[in-house]
Here is the input.
Amino acid sequence: MRFDHPNPWAPRQDLKVWLNGRLVPVAQAAINVFDHGLLYGDGVFEGLRAYGGRVFRLDRHLKRLEDGARAIRLELPMTRGEFVAAIGEAMQANGVGDGYIRLVVTRGVGYLGLTPARTANPSVFIIADQIELYPRELYEKGLEVVSASVMRNHPNALSPRIKSLNYLNNILAKIEAGDAGVLEAIMYNHMGFVSECTGDNIFLVRDGTVQTPPIHAGILEGITRNAAIELLRRRQVCVREMDLTRSDLYVADECFLTGTAAEVIPVTKIDGRPIGDGRPGAVTAQLMRDFRELVKQEQ
Ligand code: PMP
Here is the structure.
């Protein structure tokens, strides 16, 4: 039994976690084994990013958290203002001005059995630290991705619009990426159309037009996705939200992913096929610069 297997990716020892109203040393930041977030993946979360001490589009993240909680009938135990204050405390306690913040709300401690009626209060915790999802050089060279065989959640089952604690199908897709020796995988929906990657939204560029799956394709409505659409349109680039097939990916001139942790990253190979000339394209490069500028402006 490997109960004490050392984890080389363990968080730094001096990290303090905001847990149910208190800042606790990471070693003591523990969740009860009867918490339904753990037992059933019953909860919602957000991944946020701070630039220069300010969280990028915090209100939109909190709105998505509120909508997700509502969709799973979880009554949030804190107001928006209280979340803002708690996030600030977690950032300050860990000296995070530029970094990544994970906010998690679980159904709370209950007992065995699915019913949320047997849980007491939702648990809330906030981790403020650093994240490097992809190595720096891939932002210049581009990322290689593969198509996953596991599909994205059917929107009528667990809606991908809800950023719930139930990420198992995305994890299975991520494992497929690992098996293929790459860092990310594209997931398709129940109709066979492109939905998104395991933790990022996806975009293509074809003949100067940017294409991305619509919300109804079963995707998370990414905050970075929406910022990218805004930035592209500001430059008069035509952005179309449309159903995309696997062959649309293969004939694209450019491809890129967006996400809070990833920001904007070019994709230069899909299923072993080079995209465009196999190097990040001009539309992607311009968007990456514009995104850097935007986060600076909104600081
Ligand atoms: N899709 C999925 C499945 C995600 O988990 C995320 C967040 N990591 C995204 C897309 C990107 O969303 P955002 O830009 O809001 O981080």
Remarks:
- The mean pLDDT is 96.
- The chain has two domains: 16-129, 138-297.
